[in-house]
Amino acid sequence: MKLALVVPGGVDRSGEVRVIPALLALIERLSRVHEVHVFALRQEAVADRWQLAGATIHNLGDGWIQSRGVAAIRAEHRRASFSVLHAIFSGPCGLIAVAAAKLLRVPCMVHVTGGELVALRDIGYGGRLTWKGRLREYLALRGADVVTATSAPIVDLLQSLGVRAQRVPLGVDLRKWPPLAPRPRRAGPARLVHVASLNRVKDQTTLLHALVHLAKTGIEFEMDIVGTDTLQGAMTELFREHGLERCTRFRGFKTQRELRPIVESADLLVMSSRHEAGPFVLIEAAAAGVPTVGTAVGHIVEWAPSAALAVPVGNPERLADAIHTLLADEARRLCIARAAQCRALSEDADYTARTFESLYQRLIAGAGG
Question: Does residue 245 fall inside a structural domain?
């Protein structure tokens, strides 16, 4: 098959920074047996082309992204016809893929794995904030031949919008993120890790107040916060003002190789997001034998209560209580860690690629019929 994947970015030519690990794992696996062309909307400001993970990356660059995206797909299609067009993320990616597919009469899939379907107006987040965004999602999701989503809550959200979807989790590459058996806690302060860009939707303010509550219980802990700061130091200052600088380290962005030992050393992954389709780091942590406590979004609520602990969004007291619960009950923490690892291993990157390939074959067979 000749496949076209349309993505917002995440395919930097370095293969290490500004990448989406689950996306690279999928591209690498599809490229082993298929000809894969990846159309990245704005990986770099200037249009260019390079090879990555066995695929050809077509960076569209700045400008009239919709028309240029369709034109780039058409140009490559003229060289040799695409079998399937596949948008990873809806939004502009989905609209470009659907428009090109209709024009070229090629089957099309759209995978929802971000904030395309939500509208969190108080923080200006989500694909459905404006009428243009809602129209774009309507056209993309109803124009696709197949719609998939990363987790069950996103499938349910699509169903509420009248769109039938299949759950296809984006799995971890177990060769690059090998399984490690869950481990008993070591002596000393509990080790917590939070992996996410510092921004409003990841809601580190709730995380902050949860840690303040946790400190009042007398539990000693150390928190590593890993991720790019998009708030110009505001969150770092807020943690300092609340007296958490002694037990919290802001580690900034880390590559996958740098992130792995930080996650391995943790007793718990703690997430505070207001919205997630994943998060992917939950799967990485599970593979590394580390359980997750977090807000009831994406995989966290999907896996709870046997393979994660989920609490209401924006509730720092409940988040602190859940962290305390697992730190105080080692048997339960290890039980959840083992259950989470089983889920991560059963739905790894190989599983993701096989599932998408099966859907491609069905689409092609349907188009031929």
Answer: yes
Same structural domain, 338 and 353: no
Radius of gyration of the chain (CA): 21
Token couple for 327: 């730190």
How many CA within 13 A on the CB side of residue 1?
A: 24
Read off the pLDDT band of 368 (50, 70, 90).
Answer: low
In a domain, 352, yes or no: yes
Tell me, yes or no, whether 274 and 364 share the same domain: no
Between CA 106 and CA 84 the distance in angstroms is: 6
- Where would I find the H helices in 10-164? 21-31, 65-79, 91-104, 131-143, 152-160
Look at the block and give the residue holding tokens 């108080």: 122
> Are the CB atoms for 5 and 27 separated by under 8 Å?
yes
pLDDT tens digits, one per residue of 281-326: 999 999 999 999 999 999 999 999 999 999 999 999 999 999 999 9
Contact 304, 326 (CB under 8 A): no
Cβ count near 109 (within 10 Å): 25
Residue 27 contacts residue 52 (beta carbons within 8 Å): yes
The mean predicted confidence, pLDDT, of the chain is 96
pTM above 0.85, yes or no: yes
What is the distance between the alpha carbons of residues 157 and 107, in angstroms, rounded to a whole number? Answer: 24
Q: What is the mean pLDDT of residues 260-285?
A: 97
Domain shared by 138 and 20, yes or no: yes
Q: How many structural domains does the chain have?
A: 2
* Residue-wise pLDDT tens digits, 179-217: 999 999 999 999 999 999 999 999 999 999 999 999 999
What range defines the domain where residue 216 resides?
A: 190-346
Lateral strand order in the sheet of 2-7: 48-52, 55-59, 35-40, 2-7, 84-88, 108-112, 146-149, 166-167
* Same-domain check for residues 209 and 315: yes
Query: What is the rounded CA–CA span in Å between residue 264 and residue 286?
Result: 10
